[in-house]
Specification:
Blueprint (H helix, E strand, L loop, with lengths): L1 H15 L24 H4 L11 H7 L11 E10 L5 E11 L4 E11 L3 E2 L12 E2 L2 E12 L4 E13 L4 E15 L5 E10 L11 E6 L6 E6 L10 E12 L2 E12 L5 E10 L3 E10 L11 E13 L5 E11 L6 E9 L1
Antiparallel strand pairs: 1-2, 1-18, 2-3, 3-6, 4-5, 6-7, 7-8, 8-9, 9-12, 10-11, 12-13, 13-14, 14-15, 15-16, 16-17, 17-18
Amino acid sequence: MKLKSYIAAFLSVALMGTAYAGNPQRAGSAGAGELLINPFARSAGWGSVNVAGATGMDATFLNIAGIAATDLNTQVTFNNTQWLVGAGINMNGATLIQRVSDVGVLSMGLSAFDYGQWEVTTEDQPEGTGATISPQSLIINMGYAQKFTENIYGGVNVKLYSSSISNLNTNGVCFDAGVQYRTGEEDRFKFGITLKNVGPSITYQGDGLGITLPVPTYGVAYSQTFESRSAKFELPTQLSIGGSYDWFVANGKVTGALNFSSNSFEKDTYHAGVQYSLKDLFQVRVGYKAFDNRADDLGTSAISGICGGFSFNVPTSDEGSFAIDYSYRGTTSAFGGIHSIGVRINL
């Protein structure tokens, strides 16, 4: 048991070593930005702040270690997000959490992004050819987490990423690792650290990188296809460190949480959130996400930072329940916000 504790502690220290790796000068140069989008309404409602205390399906995005801290044997969730309303971008997802032993839990998830239909334009027909394309992206993940001691949880998540249009596609793989530490009376204090989206660079391939042009000749005219190579792009690695504390009040509980995220390809972010839970039947939450603009004092994101949400949880048996989650994330005036809704079936 001591060996397991040392392994978990070592992982925490190793992850902490990259806590200040943020590089806003590289903003916009990474690919696969979908890996940074929280698909879950419950945790998105307070700014994805609960890295320390996330459990169940939220932990598959925030901190994979938290799936081992769930009290459930099985959880099935379905989620829909209207991303940057007005842009025509939708995200749908499904997640399964399954306990496989007294200390181990598996997770499997799928998130599909639909960017709508885009009109095809060419140099000869800049107003449009009449044809359309439908870009799509897909993220498949599988994780495992384990309870190492009464206080320490650790886990690893594997993600498969795919993105395509009619004549271009790319595929990649990356990993998450995380640790949660819980202590105090009824585990009131929680600390978490997670490193996400670590993987090799990927590149686009397909016929869209080729162009057919006439070849000048004094004889018989002919055409030839010239093909270029897509530059490789890195994945948006992120390291997050957070803490939370629970205050038990009459008929409920208030949870406050703080989180810092260091981003490899954009400005670092600070998160704060508060959630009130009424007998685990109703929760309301609010949060704020602030960007570190000290370098240029400029706002460089369409997301304003303000967010909020609520959940209704209806018991269906002694151990089972059915829940509905909703969240709103504020944006600049160019968009109509980000709306997420989710359904949880707890068994």
